[in-house]
Design brief:
This protein has about 140 residues and is an all-alpha fold. Helices cover about 85% and strands about 0% of the residues. The two termini are about 25 Å apart. GO terms for molecular function: metal ion binding; protoporphyrinogen oxidase activity. Catalyzes the oxidation of protoporphyrinogen IX to protoporphyrin IX. Its EC number is 1.3.99.-.
Length: about 140
Amino acid sequence: MDYLFFKSLHLILIISWMAGLFYIPRLFVYVAQDNARKRTSIYIEQQKRLLYFTSPLGLLGIIFGALMLAQSVALLDTFWFKTKLVLVGFLVLYNIFLFIEHFRQTQLKIRTVLQYKFINEVVVLILIPIVFLSVFKWQ
């Protein structure tokens, strides 16, 4: 029973975190496109609010994942789970990068639109293998 409860909360929290990881880079694109700087402060404020709201959700999702792992420690012996943990580590690093990039934008150190569009796709490249590993549980 605890395992299913932890799993449900884990999924809800991770999905919420991922929503932020998908949208925050889009706000970076909007800042880069705002050449006249008329709405830049609004986009930067939205970035800040999303970062400070969704990052703790990711942390809680990871905590509930760890609680699930505590009930099934044998997962640590599987290749797919070790690989998933490495990819989750990359998601955490990506989240940290978003904080750094947000700070850069507050100082108006803005990259090109194309660079932000590439940054926006990184999370997808991490998410896809996580989902496939979790569903198929390849050994």
